[in-house]
Amino acid sequence: MLKGRNILLIGARAGGYGEGIARAAVAAGANVYGTTLTPSDPQEQNFFESLPAELIDIPLRFDSENRAGVLDTFKRIQEYLRDKGVQKLDAVIHTVAGGFPRQPSVMKAVADILRGKSTFSDMATCVKRNVFYVNAGSFEDTITGLSGISDTNTQYVALTYRGELPYFISQTKHYLERLAVRQAGKGIRTLIAALPEAWTQSSQFFAGIEIAVIHNYLSHLQGRDPGQEFSEPFQKMEKSLAALAGFPELLSELQEFIRDRWGDINAASNPAIVSERVERLFTELRHKGNFSVLRQSVEIISDFVRSASGMIVVRDFLEQKAYEPGDVRQVYYRDLLGSTSVEKAKPRVVPVRRVVVNRKWQEFDKEDVRSTLSMYGEKFLFLDSVIMEVGEVYTGFLGFAKFRVPTPDENPILKDHFIGMPLFGGHLQMEAVAQFGTFMILKVLKDKRLVPILTGTEFPDLNTMAPPGEVLKMMGTIHLAEKRNLVLEATIENRFARSKGIIRGMVVNQRVIRKMMSAFDSVEGDD
Q: By its UniProt entry, which Pfam families does this protein fall under (predicted)?
């Protein structure tokens, strides 16, 4: 039992794994405290009252760009707990996930990833950095921030995912697991718990979560006898499913689907394939009128999974301490019956290291850019700095660039561009990328009689508008398509969105340029 022990839950929410852990800890006699983003929210307050647990009246928001502020918040949390008579925390449970800014461009990018149209790597760097921090780095800052109210016996537990569905931010959880090992090496009692699939506010966006829940129920729970400790929540689940009209028919149909169309799905599957199969199944279920039965049954099973997972975390890890610091322990559906021991998770597959190219770099400032791109007017130059390789141009030649969007007072183009809305549109951003490519080519051309010209642009998803002060970051790789023809595969990103595209061009002799320009000379003739 945990009678009298002090446990702090970071980020627990109603309907999540944190709720199951909190309820199990309270039932075991622990004093449970919790933090949220908005402790003033009545829903959050009602949730903690229902546990019952004490909601700390200090907002805690993990932000990769304000880590000092996060650590300062932890100081205030420590003071709050001491004022409540807590001299030491016995356990800290980190249930934080997410980290995606609630911006339309970010939500669209997430939707594209879940449909297999892009990957996590395609997101804006600032967004990826924050997602890594919230899902992994925040665990390390939690340990640092609470060191004044912890000791070597304090347990730090965080949650990871080790299931059979493609998890597009899995690399953040890889990092979390490595951080736990690092902290264990410093004497911290860290544990990473991989809990089984259940419907939560986070997992509901995973294509196939419903199928995974039903599949595991059929394989490991249906018709089984749980241990005495788990009997009550198990029987509650079984009675609710038995009372659900249409559930037997749904199971029959899903068993056929799982057998015929789900057997090859695993964590390494292409999300596009998973999404397509799931959408097709959902369409069929909607036509037959039993889609709602699927959702209700998944929620019923998930209630049990979250509850039983919480009981296992409390019993096996917090009470019995059945792990070694730095472990990743994986709870399977079969463990939710309470009669098996939780095993160490299998080692992650180590990714093949990419070949590292030893590149030499050269930096160019605004004045270098201005003198090199002298053919552009001062107000139509959309580059501030460039970093690019040194040497001969080749396929794969790499460069980077930045541009800070000016205010209308700094650049009249924006003042006259969108009246009353001085935003840097997608077409101007494409122009910035084209200037970036032109700069790179001019710097590597030794024969100054050769001139690069633009022949086309392809940025199909460049639909974000950048406000004044926003710093646009560009990366480009030159590809030599054929003689004289060039392709710049480029990305341009702001804080929340990254767009990929192509700038096409060719290198021609100055003599050819003069002939082309002469064709535009005015010629007298008949009207």
A: FabMG (PF22046)
